[in-house]
Amino acid sequence: MEKIEISLLLLLAAALPLSAQRVETVPFGDFEHWTVRHIKESALIGGEVKTLYVLGPDEVIEGNKAYDYARTPWASSNAYARVSGVTKTSLSVEPDEGPTGKCARLSTVYASCKVAGLVEIQVLATGALYWGRMYEPITGVRDPYANMDWGIPFTGHPEALLVDYKAELPATGKLVRGTTFRKTEFPGEDPCQVMLLLQRRWEDAEGNIHAERVGTAFLRIGRTTGGWVRNRRIPVWYGDASRQSGYRPYMGLITGANTLYATNSKGRRVPVREEGWADAGTASTHAVLQISSGCQGGFTGAPGNTLWVDNLRMEYAR
Predict the structure, then answer these.
(1) Is residue 260 assigned to a domain?
(2) If both were cysteines, with which of 4, 151, 207, 218 could 264 make a disulfide (CB 3.0 to 4.6 Å apart)?
């Protein structure tokens, strides 16, 4: 009898770490629901009606309208642009069939068109989903991050992200930078990426937005997977992530050319100035969550990179 009681106690003790966690699905993180948008491009480049997707409520939107991001926390690299009077779209994120229903497919692709059937324009687009919104229509390609409002209000304290994914990456060892009429190639790699940044933000009297990094979580996928990877756990590090044994330079504070933008209380788009690491006990005010088929920044990457994601969740302590 004593041996049976000891065995039962051991079994209960082994089960405690599992019951000490709770898992919550991120809004629309099952990737089952998508808004379909039909946008007509300019006659100068063919005048076709193109389909774009938003990870959000099931609905169909007809016409060249800016999307209302009050419906969903998610924006994407799918672009509705009107540059110099010409309306153009770009599709790099769309629903696909996954292991448990629908999933998201993110691809690094060329957004190309011929003007008046003669002059071909190619811009490289990395497929990305992120928390925030896109300012539409896009009116230029000079600073892609300035067209995005990065992050949403967030006060949670997750211990990890959980995600299912599959990746295909061409093993060329080459990167391409493609902007309008220019295309250059150079050596390099372009891993897919899942990133969660928790920040404490505040605004000064001039409307500048400042931030401290509260929490950091990164996953880089540098090779083709042999199928779906299920329940991948990405831990969130609190405090100074640079002191963690697994820290890499790309996990550092976001500054310089990679600076993100947000809308201040005056309605202006301004840089989010990430100025330091917060103490481990600091509460966050905002979260930046991004999933992308590459990590090289605007208009640079490896054409053909494809990332499928499904079942995005957050793990919390009970």
Answers:
(1) yes
(2) 207
**Residues 59-75 pLDDT 10s:** 999 999 999 999 999 99
Count of C-beta atoms within a 10 Å radius of residue 248: 11
Q: In this structure, what CATH number is given to the domain that contains residue 161?
A: 2.60.120
**Local structure of 232: helix, strand or coil:** strand
Cβ–Cβ < 8 Å for 134, 75: yes
Cα four-point dihedral sign 241, 156, 235, 161? negative
| Torsion, Cα of 253, 313, 148, 270 (10° steps) | -40
pTM of this structure: 0.89
Report the C-alpha dihedral over residues 155, 150, 41, 109, rounded to 10 degrees.
-100
How many alpha carbons fall within 13 Å on the CB side of residue 57?
9
Question: Residue 288's beta-bridge partner residues?
Answer: 197
**Number of domains making up the chain:** 1
Contact 217, 314 (CB under 8 A): no
- Pick the closest to residue 138 from 105, 90, 208 (CA basis): 90
Query: pLDDT digit string (tens) for 218-243?
Result: 999 999 998 999 999 999 999 999 99
The set of residues, in sequence order, having a beta carbon less than 8 Å from that of 220 and lying 6+ positions away, is: 191, 192, 193, 250, 295
